[in-house]
User: Fold these one by one.
Assistant:
Number 1:
Amino acid sequence: MKTIFYGIFYFFLTLFFIYIFVKEKDLAKKFDVRRDKFVNKITEKYDIKNEKKVKYLKKTLYYIETIGTALILVVVIQRFYIGNFKIPTGSMIPTIEVGDRVFADMVSYKFTNPKRNNIIVFKEPIQDKVLYTKRAMGLPGEKIKIEDDVLYINGEKTDFRRYSNLGIGDMEWRIPQKGDKLEIIPAGNYNEAYKSASFDIAEVQKELKNNSSLIFELMPNLKFVVNGEETGPILDFIHDKDILDKLMVGKTIEITLEDNYYLALGDNTDNSFDSRYWGFVKESRIRGRALVRFWPLNRIGLVK
């Protein structure tokens, strides 16, 4: 169903761009006519007779139209075709360095799923607004473990690159997939615990809702269980006020997952804030795949 929807969407969006390209001159003439009509209405309404003012008004409208149209087209192209991203951290060194600029394919994942080793661009689940660039190393339904700096997938040793188990420890994580049963199990009634410690419960809840990264500090020993197996965090649900309220009073949350999840890791394992710390990435959060570095000029090329 998703493939059909995006197929129709991209068909008409691409037709729209082709139409603009082919009819560029005709559209420009129509804009000129409408602009002149609009200027005439303004000059009549405010009794503007000065020719310089009329010319200035026309020129101003022309620049507003040109800049506005360009901005809209750039936003649409970046969101749906080719993304342009600046890398703010060193989590993907040496593959991608701080300050590098990359183009990302924003189309493919509308029709196919991310594959292992793809460098994905996604909206991280904690602040729920920052775009991260990491490598998809674990796929839906797989079991992963990091031991002696080696990543194991379904018990099989891999030789991709070195990974630290900080954040995971000795645990084996099962990566959730669509249809799995998720339980979020609190360690107890956090409200009572904070009340006895003379904390303001309302403030604690407010802090959590404003900054989900505090989840494991304010709600220690929170467990995530998928199909009966304890696994890594799934923090998307922490942004839900009703779920937060229930967890705070010690209620277990039970959910049937409606999306696939991925394990995202940075190549610079000792300096990467990734799935080892904030858990799995929901597929719907993934925006695209980083493909080409175009800045700095001396390092232009594919990123892989």
Note: Residues 2-80 form one domain.
Number 2:
Amino acid sequence: MQSRDFDVVVMGAGIVGSMIARALSRYAIRVALVDRANDVGTGASCANSAILHSGHDPSPGSLKAEMNRRGNELWHDLVHELEVGHRWTGAMIIALGDEQLPGLKKLLARGTENQIPGLEIISRAEVLKREPLLTPDVSGALWTPTAGVIDPFGGTVAAAENAVTNGVSLFLNAEIHDALVSDGTLIAVQTTAGEFRARWFINALGVHADDFMHLAGDRPDFAITARRGEYFIFDPNRVQVQNVLFPMPTDKGKGILVSTTAHGNTFVGPNAEEVADKEDTTATRDGMAEILEGGRRLIPSLESRDIIAGFSGVRATGNANRDFVIEISATVGGLLNVAGIESPGYVSAPAIAERVEGLLRNAGLEMVAKNEWNPRRPARPAFKELNHEQRSDLIRRNPNYGRIVCRCENVTEGEIVDAIHSPVPARDYDAIKRRCWLGTGRCQGSFDYPRVMEILSRELDIPMTAVTKKGPGSEFLARTTKG
């Protein structure tokens, strides 16, 4: 088995792991980012509500509250440094009926204690002025102006690309199957891509973070419950809201919300169902009925015929008072756990990375800043967003941008080829979809699949039978029928 040596190995290339790798790329240390999937950001980071929460909701004094508030602050700069699609929409927590109005005051008090700026309770008339589609049962709302929405795929890819261009080594299809502990210290992990040795291992493995802890002999008391949440996406030409609309929260979470997205769609979800299988992202008939019913409590006009896609994701709910766990192991040397990162995990990711950086420094890891570190990651051209003059200029320079592959979203061959040859290469259909947004319109890829397969085959120099939807085991074609 091939062995590779690093100073730090970050395990898990979701938004948290990718942000940690980016933060560590500032320093003259050898950093590896490893993930079992064929691309970065394929777990909870690509199946979530994509909201940059303001931080009004977490329990005051919790690590979750601190990371949420700081993360929101950091994202206001990061979306520009990394050129990630986003919209600072603000959010409203909607009270229905007079009986829910006192709850708004409690949320306002909690948000004020969490030091969230700009919070205010707004009247029924003002709420309906901002969102006319809301139910007439609305009685008021808590307005949180610092909240927004982000392209969740783009954010993770951008963080990983910036880390890689600053010297981080990325290893995909590297599923961890063993942890080597010697004299109480974790010295190596064995994966399907070989063995990785390091001074420090960062456990950012999402729903499997507890599994790795136990594999390494750490925290037998800590457990993560997989909580599945399902979503609907609506046709933007049929349903449009302008804000993030939350119902009053429950003990299970923030509830079934209705929200705009960075790309202009409207979505409804998630529900919350505990599942035994941590990989269970099934979209169920009962779950989808629950979501639509919940969405209609806020927007009664929602119609099932306007739905263009449905999906589900699994959240990592830890048993440590449902707070984030970000700590150096007390029993296994060289292990730093980042676990139980459920909502608001996405917005908290840069703050978590900042905290991990500080923990490593305080633990004695020598971290000398690089002179040449570049915090910026330029986005690739998005043909759909360009004006006529910009499109003409781009096509003159690269004729591939003159060939539309995805008609619904106006994605060109040029964008697809650029994604395939990017710092974190897109090597399957779903990876291209996450970068270019193809296949997300009304036809859901039925027109572009064959053409994208041809482009992947050509650019990766692989046979059509080796082209996959989401990595090995998801090949589109079984065999050729001629020749």
Note: The CA atoms of residues 334 and 403 lie 51 Å apart.
Number 3:
Amino acid sequence: MKTFVYIDHFKGEVQPASWEALGVAKSFGSASAVIFGSGLDALTKTAFEFGAGEVLLADDSALTDYRAEAFASTLSALASSRTPDLILFPTTARTRELAAMTAIDLNTGVLVDVTALSLEGDKFIATRPIYEGKLLEKTVCSGKPVIATLRARAFPRPAQDASKSGGATKVETKINSLTTVEGYTVAEAVVNLGDAGVIVSGGRGVSNNPSLTPPAGLDEKQAELWRAQQGFKLVGELASILGGAVGASRAAVDGGYIPYSHQVGQTGKVVTPDLYIACGISGAIQHLVGMRNAKLVVAINKDADAPIFKQARYGVVGDLFAIVPALTEAFKKKLGK
């Protein structure tokens, strides 16, 4: 069984779920890591360390920046010549597009956000959540190659062995692009909730600190936003101490407290962290859909009847503006920070 694993990266910084996909590929037989870009010797070495049997490298400065047409045509040509049985991607915004375009070129289908993958005879069986995670859909994959994107943290990451190395096999670049990339402008810091092991999220409740007096001259809405910013500072400090990411409910995002990139839920990101701390989040069903697969949920809310407590392993009923700073200080001492 021959499998390609597309290693998704931005200027050499790899999406960690790429290595999880490589681990899945190894369980089926030969695993080939596919890397696009230029000057990626270190990334090639890392791919071997995570267990790639070979690295197929399209080393071309034209592939330094992601362009869907060029990447898809190069990957499709490579797959046509080497005929893999399976092509795996980590699920990201880029790979959803790339996987779909590659599938069209190869006249096959694509399954997105797969959480389990097995082989029965000569058929792959893919499992993924549907209907807001209420059901699991199992699909018998009959196309060739089978193309799937894997949900981050749904599969274990293989052990990294620094003693492993190898040389990359250079592959031909197929540039058939109608667009060019002149550069990137980062409007805000990138939030990678999907790969976060710890997420501390804030809801509308972070704006309700009665002990804070807003600066003079603010109207009611401006005062609310100012209080929310102070509340999210507390959330961010706790997340930072734990080496985690900051999440948010839809109510907090809709209120303008924090950018959409932080939103967890049905209309935001579906996350699977080891630890999820919900601060001032009541627990609307749309939010619960996005974090219900967290391994451990801790809820902090002054409303003892908040639905979030039904999802939590541990619940703290009380003032988050006292509890969150206390947790931050306790973890600082415990972790020696």
Note: The longest strand covers residues 30-37.
Number 4:
Amino acid sequence: MKKTNKIKKLILIFVMLSMLLTSCTLPGLGGNTKTNVVVATGSNTERQILGEIVKQMIEHHTDLKVSLITNLSSSVLNHIAMLKGDVNVVGGMYTGTALSGELGMEPIKDPKKAEEVVMKEYYKRWERYWYPSFGFDNTYAFMVTKKFAEENNLKKVSDLEKIKDKVSVGVDTAWIKREGDGYKAFQEIYGFKFKSIYPMDIGLVYTALASGEMDVVLGYSTDGKISSYDLVVLEDDKRLFPPYDCSPVASKAIIEKYPEVEETIMRLVGQIPSETMQELNRQADEDLEMPAKVAENFLKKNNYFEDLKVDKNKIKDYREFVEGGKNV
């Protein structure tokens, strides 16, 4: 009952925010009559890189002019911008965020089911195409150094039970009391707790692990520091954390007007696995490369996925699934 009330409050806040913002134009939006397609991103590194990848792919494979909006700091603002028609495509959105945010639904632990529900609901409510995932999800993840993993034969989170009383574990401060997938839920699902656990700022966990201060930490699964420090992400084998699979989203209106946009987006499905996204984030955050340059280098390396044949039947099957309820 408490969780249901919380969801109702979130929906109410979302509706009020929508009413407030639909009456005004968001900063940096609209007014460019020479632009055919407007792509939006969030303000964090990962979503800016993905927005650039989508933008540059559309420009490479079509004759369309694309503008990029990078100042929309939350999924709610991206959603509202699409409602208003100021934005046609969002470079990257996450299933877990959409379920608990825009859709106001309970978390779904099964990744395939979560993606299917979001796909159908997004089309049903707003006539938007939530495309299949880029190939990665960005959620909380337990991780260790490669050396520590090899010494203790660690591959999945449940493997930590055998060393639970010997390890120092660093976690995001907010995670300790987080409902649904926090430390309490961890103990219920995995059946054990750590003897020594240290809450800290999420930005400090990686250096604490690399320096040897911590043996195990809880971070984000696509953080660039995973690649920088050559860390090993442990499999969440009992599905404590909801999936946050990342996908591009486009309005039905822009796809009907420019079908080539959909064909271009579908080239990216499954082409950015977690390890690749970690490396792209690392290049931006650690090497200080601009997101546009990171995206350009990635696309050039992969020849803009020109070698991938666009499967029209796959697009047809996807459309029938989201529009008519047919199974994928």
Note: The longest helix spans residues 2-21.
